[in-house]
Amino acid sequence: MTTTLHTAGIVGVGLIGGTMAMAIKDHTPLTVFGWDRDPETLKAALAEGAIDSAQGRLEDCDILLIALYPKDTVDFVKEHAEQVRPGTLLVDLCGIKRYLCQELSPFCKERGIRYVGGHPMSGRETSGFASAKREMYRGASIVLTPDGYTDPQAVDQAEAFFLSLGFGRVVRTTPEKHDEIIAYTSQLAHVLSSSYIQNPLACQFSGFTGGSFQDLTRVSRLNCQMWGELFDRNQDMLCNQLDLLIEKLIDYKKALRGHDHEELNRLMEHGTAIKNQLLHELNNAE
């Protein structure tokens, strides 16, 4: 059963949810209700025109987008499921997917709620509604992770909905593959950035830095509560990626210690070739 979308609900009007609300208001005629535990956030979202009301009812929403931390998302859905109308399209926007899908897919299926796991692939290093940016999702990818409980029509409707907001691409994959890849493309980068800046020389960099330092440390400012939960609930995949990175760093260290110029050049040339291939594929895709 596909429900025509007239009203959207955003639970968690921070960076992700606030930007999503702005995109819905900018690109669709949908009425947007917002829920957040912080009254000042809701007041700011109303003033910005990101939401139409902070007084809506969950049962009046045709689509619900949950932009909370993972456990908070699961708790919210399970605690409020009786207020969600059967047939409602529900999409979580968390950065991990196995835990969410394991907890919510069968639960929602039993109650007639059309759940789809989702993850918008765009963000910023700061958080909260004040960091929400109207065009942050324009041209970005969003990942959808249907599983054996998912209604195929719900996935199609979610894809059409997100493309209508300005997303440039919808990627469908399994929750397992999402968590494996995101451990590399996002979580590992944040761990590396945080580790890199915890160097005694970091406080002595003035006048010695260019783009490399700024690029590598951009995501070292972490929302520790959120990222800590994301890392912990995906620790197996993240640890695998850390092992691979550590192995490669050790290869560099061995080449340097041994003055092995041939091996050092091979390592650098291999990395350069991979980057060039990625750039080639990106340019062809555009």
Helix-strand layout with pairing:
Blueprint (H helix, E strand, L loop, with lengths): L6 E5 L3 H13 L3 E5 L3 H10 L14 E4 L3 H11 L8 E4 L5 H13 L3 E7 L20 E4 L7 H13 L4 E4 L2 H23 L13 H7 L6 H10 L1 H23 L3 H25 L1
Parallel strand pairs: 1-2, 1-3, 3-4, 4-5, 6-7
Antiparallel strand pairs: 5-6
Helix pairs in contact: 3-4, 6-9, 9-10
Describe the protein.
By secondary structure, this protein is α/β, with parallel strands linked by helices. It is 52% helix and 12% strand. The chain has ten helices and seven strands. The protein has a seven-stranded mixed β-sheet, sandwiched between helices. Helix 3 packs parallel to helix 4. It is elongated and about 70 Å long. The model has no long low-confidence stretch (mean pLDDT 94).
TL;DR of this structure?
With 286 residues, the protein is an alpha/beta fold. The chain is 52% helix and 12% strand. Strand 3 (63-66), helix 3 and strand 4 form a beta-alpha-beta unit.
